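Contributing new records

If you add data, match the layout below exactly. Sequence lines come first and carry their own label; structure lines follow with theirs. Keep one chain per record. Anything else will be rejected by the validation script.
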Amino acid sequence: MKNITNQEKIWIGKFGDEFTKRNFSNLKDVASFDEIHRKNFGFGRVELYKKFLGKLDRSIRILEVGSNVGIQLAILKKMGFSFSK
């Protein structure tokens, strides 16, 4: 059996469940996440990603750490990046 780190213990328990519920329970898709970001910061996350990542070759490798429910990955996919397992 795999050794579980202290950080993993925190995230797989009540804290992780409550974090996901609190931060992502009202998200249905990229558009709803983008709208929340726009309300809070004055610009959408998709707009931000396009500014910083827009000129990158879509075949490059990107490491997304801690994807949780995968909204960041969905934005990258929407921008044309592909994923491999």
